[in-house]
């Protein structure tokens, strides 16, 4: 291409128009992180291109020098604006808003002052003169060390900003791999042109080809930021999320190396340990704990911590930190405050002992005396005594069920292979002796499942007893079939169905003063089903059909 006046000037104007088009395309994203600085970058680029295009048309030395100074201001400020954009776009607003970075603005401000006053002191360049080149207004002058330093600083700003954007976008993986390549390549053409011009290298040293080479830069930016919507999925969200995942959460988190020495603490961990992070760095994490130490093995443990005059209990879970090659670098240590949970457990233990001993013993006394009274009295008084006896009997029975569930739940979650037909036969035999009624078991003899037998027995017992207790002359059927990896257990009866308010309480998972169940049997069914990793469903359209879907094989991890 013949680089005479018309082509170079038109190329500069074309780059200016392209910059304006890029701004228009990104208008909808101007409110995104870093976008204001990106606008400042493109505006600087636009002014540079138009001013240099005009400079090529002006042969008056004074006007030509003024337009050349505008081009220098473009060199100075485009680097600072682009680096500021990169910091905001990649979510590093803490750096962007820091005092030291604002102080960094002294560099372009100082450069601006030197450029504007250069005709007085000639520190940046000297010997400026207009040199007609193929009909264009070229400029010949010597760029002095101060001028070279200004250009180098500006290019360093651009390079560092490019690396930030490139590295951050690459972290998205294959999603923006091509776009990241475009971002990384886009500053190369104009940057190389600036450096070659400053060094006086090239076929036309009196001409600065940088504005012309902004054209490929604009094309690459349009591809990366407009065609692929990189401003829609900006990295600032990811960085903020990563920061919030550790720094902003209320859960204490510590990062330690393989020897258990503190590498980082989030604010919640600093408060928990009553220590400043800077003081804790490189110190063993265990030195800030009381009670048992945390073993750096990636497992779980429990520790006691005394801080600020408060005693707290924490469950500690460690996760190994590895690099991309799989090399273990340390651990993420998460502290879960279980102080209140432990206190509740202790209160429940006391309450449970009270119910098991005091209430049970007193209920037995009341029941025995009511039985004696019912045998001695006649008529209405005997009926009253019999009512007391039955009521206390139900209370004792409910307490026994609750104790059975509590004891089964604390039984090491042991898994066994269970023959479902045999277990159902035992449950039905016991229930039939106590409540009467007709119960049919329709379960294949070879149907087995691996589960917690005690909980499964509680589940079956309460399903059968619920049907026999509430349906006079009940016809109850207990069945089971296999569906894929599950066993579907059904208990059906021909009664009027479970009341809607009872099922509503179970679905909500809690009782209130106005909405509550009449007993504990259905709660036991729900709790045991949930513990056994099963699903529970009720059909009351024609009698009652209770369906429990249970996994045929459960692992020890599921049962824990």
Automatic annotation (TrEMBL):
The lineage of its organism: Archaea, Methanobacteriati, Methanobacteriota, Stenosarchaea group, Halobacteria. Its main location: membrane. It is a multi-pass membrane protein. Its EC number is 2.7.13.3. It is found in: Membrane. Residues 354-554 form the Histidine kinase domain. InterPro entries: BphY/WalK/GraS-like, HATPase_C_sf, HATPase_dom, His_kinase_dom, HisKA_7TM, PAS, PAS-like_dom_sf, PAS_fold. The chain crosses the membrane at residues 6-24, 36-58, 70-89, 101-121, 141-169, 181-201. GO terms for cellular component: membrane. GO terms for molecular function: ATP binding; phosphorelay response regulator activity; protein histidine kinase activity; protein kinase activator activity. SUPFAM superfamilies: ATPase domain of HSP90 chaperone/DNA topoisomerase II/histidine kinase (SSF55874), PYP-like sensor domain (PAS domain) (SSF55785). One of its GO terms (biological process) is osmosensory signaling via phosphorelay pathway. Residues 238-293 form the PAS domain. This is histidine kinase. It catalyses: ATP + protein L-histidine = ADP + protein N-phospho-L-histidine.
């Amino acid at each position: 291409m013949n680089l005479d006046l018309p082509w170079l000037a038109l190329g500069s104007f074309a780059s200016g128009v392209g910059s304006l088009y890029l701004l228009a395309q990104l208008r909808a994203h101007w409110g995104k992180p870093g976008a204001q600085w990106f606008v400042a970058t493109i505006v600087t680029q636009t002014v540079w291109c138009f001013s240099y295009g005009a400079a090529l048309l002006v042969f008056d030395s004074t006007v030509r020098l003024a337009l050349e100074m505008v081009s220098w201001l473009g060199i100075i400020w485009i680097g600072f604006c682009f680096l500021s954009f990169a910091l905001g776009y990649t979510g590093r607003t803490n750096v962007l808003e820091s005092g030291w970075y604002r102080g960094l603005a002294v560099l372009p401000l100082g450069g601006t002052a030197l450029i504007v006053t250069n005709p007085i002191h000639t520190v940046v360049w000297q010997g400026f003169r207009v040199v007609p080149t193929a009909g264009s207004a070229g400029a010949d002058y010597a760029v002095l060390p101060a001028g070279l330093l200004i250009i180098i600083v500006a290019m360093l700003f651009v390079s560092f900003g490019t690396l930030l954007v490139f590295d951050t976008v690459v972290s998205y993986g294959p999603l923006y791999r091509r776009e990241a390549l475009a971002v990384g390549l886009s500053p190369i053409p104009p940057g190389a042109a600036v450096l070659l011009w400053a060094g006086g290298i090239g076929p036309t040293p009196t001409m600065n080809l940088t504005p012309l080479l902004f054209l490929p830069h604009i094309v690459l930016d349009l591809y990366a930021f407009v065609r692929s919507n990189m401003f829609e999925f900006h990295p600032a969200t990811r960085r903020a999320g990563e920061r919030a995942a550790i720094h902003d959460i209320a859960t204490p988190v510590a990062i330690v190396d393989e020897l258990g020495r503190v590498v980082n603490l989030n604010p919640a961990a600093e408060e928990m340990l009553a220590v400043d992070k800077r003081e804790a760095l490189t110190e063993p994490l265990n030195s800030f704990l009381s009670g048992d130490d945390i073993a750096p093995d990636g497992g779980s443990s429990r520790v006691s911590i005394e801080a600020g005059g408060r005693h707290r209990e924490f469950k500690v879970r460690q996760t190994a930190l590895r690099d991309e090659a799989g090399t273990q670098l340390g651990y993420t240590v998460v502290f879960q405050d279980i102080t209140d949970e432990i206190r509740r457990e202790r209160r429940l233990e006391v309450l449970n002992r009270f119910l098991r001993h005091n209430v049970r013993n007193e209920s037995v006394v009341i029941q025995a005396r009511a039985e004696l009274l019912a045998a001695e009295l006649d008529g209405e008084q005997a009926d009253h005594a019999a009512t007391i006896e039955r009521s206390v009997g139900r209370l004792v029975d409910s307490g026994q069920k609750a104790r059975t569930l509590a004891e089964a739940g604390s039984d090491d979650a042991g898994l066994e292979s269970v023959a479902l037909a045999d277990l159902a036969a035992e449950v039905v035999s016991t229930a039939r002796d106590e409540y009467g009624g007709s119960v049919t078991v329709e379960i294949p003899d070879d149907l087995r499942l691996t589960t917690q037998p005690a909980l499964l027995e509680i589940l079956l017992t309460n399903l059968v007893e619920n049907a026999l207790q509430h349906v006079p002359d009940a016809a109850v059927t207990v069945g089971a079939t296999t569906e894929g990896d599950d066993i579907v257990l059904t208990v059906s009866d021909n009664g009027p169905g479970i009341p809607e308010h009872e099922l509503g309480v179970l679905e909500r998972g809690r009782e209130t003063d106005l909405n509550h169940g009449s007993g504990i049997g259905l709660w036991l069914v729900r709790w045991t089903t949930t513990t056994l990793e099963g699903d529970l469903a009720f059909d009351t359209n024609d009698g009652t059909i209770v369906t429990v879907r249970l996994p045929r094989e459960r692992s020890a991890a599921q049962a824990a």
